């Protein structure tokens, strides 16, 4: 009787613990354990992991010796890892890698630098959706303080991209470049970046609706929280971009980007 009264609380306690871990960044999506060349030992089939990935398998997957996990080698194939040893600090697996990672989305995303919290969400989401080329650009309404964010450090960006790859079972890291000046970027670089693609700029005020299932590569520019200013819209139009809308509802950047990608592909 006592046990049956305790059971729901135990489950509730577990859920709270997982929620706490997610909130404080200890538990993250990991539908694939991402491996690096340096994780491999000896015969090329054995890997040893310590730190976040080993902890995640132990605490979130609650997997033990003999369990099989989905794994993938960075920029390479996807496969299975069978756990051969698991301690409080380390995890060992025997892995086979046989499958290609999911197909990428043929899109280059030009994203006005959002606030760090939003940037984290957008990077994870677009990486999970298969975007492989991201440019973080300055526009007039990007707050200056955002450029000082530690999230723009290479290692911090990479961490967000890896979380997106792990979520989607992908292994191919997107490239992220940062352009801190709008005018030279748009005037000198954008036409080469967008060559051969359908170039679109997302703007709630546009009269044309965003096309669906375009079936061809796209370069997509998305504005900051306050939107693009008219000068920026004109400058992108001069480079062949067409302004398109998702309708009259102004969406947050982290919602607009997946909505646009879902509609385009
Ligand atoms: N007040 C701003 C405006 O009217 O442009 C809203 C900016 S919105 C929060 C940030 C960016 O998300 C926009 O610059 C645009 O690129 C994209 N976006 C949001 N809602 C959109 C919509 N309904 N249609 C097209 N793009 C949208």
Give your account of this protein's structure.
This protein is α/β, with parallel strands linked by helices and 265 residues long. The chain folds into 2 domains: 2-99, Hypothetical PUA domain-like, domain 1 (Ribosomal Protein L25, Chain P), CATH 2.40.240; 105-264, Alpha/beta knot. Helix content is 36%, strand content 26%. It has 7 helices and 12 strands. It has helices spanning 2-23, 52-61, 116-129, 154-168, 182-194, 230-238, 253-264, and strands at residues 33-35, 40-41, 46-50, 68-73, 78-86, 90-99, 105-112, 131-137, 175-179, 198-202, 218-222, 242-244. It has a 6-stranded mixed β-sheet. Helix 4 links the parallel strand 8 (131-137) and strand 9 (175-179). The longest helix is centred in the first third of the chain and has 22 residues, at 2-23. It is elongated, with a radius of gyration of 22 Å. Bound molecules: S-adenosylmethionine (SAM). Residues 202-204, 222-223, 225-228, 245-247, 249-253, 256 line the site of S-adenosylmethionine.
């Amino acid at each position: 009787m006592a046990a049956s009264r305790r059971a729901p609380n135990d489950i509730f306690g577990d859920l709270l613990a997982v929620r706490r871990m997610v909130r404080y960044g200890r538990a993250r999506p990991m539908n694939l354990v991402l491996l690096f060349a340096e994780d491999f030992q000896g015969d090329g089939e054995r890997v040893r992991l310590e730190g976040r990935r080993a902890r995640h398998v132990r605490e979130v997957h609650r997997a033990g010796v003999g369990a099989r996990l989905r794994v993938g080698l960075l920029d390479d194939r996807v496969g299975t890892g069978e756990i051969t040893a698991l301690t409080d600090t380390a995890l060992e697996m025997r892995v086979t890698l046989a499958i290609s990672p999911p197909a990428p989305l043929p899109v280059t995303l030009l994203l006005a630098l959002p606030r760090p919290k939003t940037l984290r969400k957008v990077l994870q989401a677009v990486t999970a959706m298969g975007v492989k080329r991201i440019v973080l650009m300055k526009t007039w309404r990007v707050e200056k303080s955002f450029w000082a964010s530690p999230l723009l450090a290479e290692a911090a960006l990479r961490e967000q991209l890896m979380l997106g790859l792990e979520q989607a079972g992908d292994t191919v890291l997107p490239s992220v470049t940062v352009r801190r000046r709008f005018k030279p970027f748009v005037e000198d670089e954008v036409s080469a970046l967008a060559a051969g693609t359908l170039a679109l700029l997302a703007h709630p005020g546009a009269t044309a609706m965003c096309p669906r299932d375009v079936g061809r590569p796209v370069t997509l520019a998305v504005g900051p929280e306050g939107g693009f200013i008219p000068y920026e819209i004109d400058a992108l139009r001069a480079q062949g971009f067409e302004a398109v809308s998702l309708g009259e509802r102004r969406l947050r950047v982290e919602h607009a980007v997946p909505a646009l990608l879902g509609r385009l592909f």
